[in-house]
Fold this protein.
Amino acid sequence: MNPEEMVQSAAPSQGQPAASSTVIEVHNLHRTYSLGEVQVHALRGISLKVDRGEFVAIMGASGSGKSTFMNLIGCLDRPTRGTYLLDGHDVSSLSKVELAHIRNRKLGFVFQGFNLLSRTSALENVELPLIYSGMAHEERMEKAREALKAVGLEGREDHDPAQLSGGQQQRVAIARALVNDPSIILADEPTGNLDSRTSIEIMQIFQKLNDDRKITIMLVTHETDIARFAKRAVHFRDGKVRRDYILDDRTDANEMLLTMPWIDDDDDEEAEEAPA
Ligand SMILES: Nc1ncnc2c1ncn2[C@@H]1O[C@H](COP(=O)(O)OP(=O)(O)O)[C@@H](O)[C@H]1O
Ligand SMILES: [Mg+2]
């Protein structure tokens, strides 16, 4: 790497070692869906490199290929063409079983619709990924408790999703993504179902995980206001990268929340009527 490249790749992750390693590297990634006779070209040659500790917002209109891309990065799907190196390992040609193994070890997922099991406590929802890893019950409980604490849900372990607000459900989902100690969190429109203050609270958690634990975050959003909490923005259009730039003046969620009226997450209905 020449000195100029080093400066560029150090820029997105200030305060971290300049020689931070590449965690995601895709080259000329294509994904074509076959719908009967029709071929849908969802991705048309994406090349991208993401270093450890980056916080990337993937932006673009509906249908531009964002979710298709995240599914490939998350090893939930395989590309039609192109290469994908995850932590230096070529995962484009792995079997389904091998992909599932990598997914469980390295990746955490957060979705727009939370995807929690109903009639199942917060603690059990968070514990779930650990069951697959064969960990003992006591240790699973302890890890799940820790993860819930990290997202500010201490004391809610026994609540099931129906007893929690949308913001709290998304926190449970983030705890579940965290419990395996992933190096990357992939979040697809995680604030899509949340009001603006709650959305910022979720972004506050992502910023904290990124700052304190150096977890790499890839976040899909079509909202510019939400993308501003990231360190880098990548715009998709028609299955291609159109723009890719560093967000120098990114919004600090802690600061922003100080300027916003407090709404108690526990009493959504009352809070909406309370004077601002
Ligand atoms: N499973 C699928 N089968 C067929 N076409 C799909 C499938 N998933 C996505 N597509 C198509 O691929 C394109 C990209 O979709 P998607 O990745 O979901 O975009 P975005 O997340 O940016 O809205 C769209 O034209 C969409 O209709
Ligand atoms: Mg999508």
Summary: Residues 100 and 106 are 10 Å apart (CA to CA). The mean pLDDT is 89. Residues 21-265 form a domain with the Rossmann fold fold (CATH 3.40.50.300). Residues 196-213 form the longest helix (18 residues).
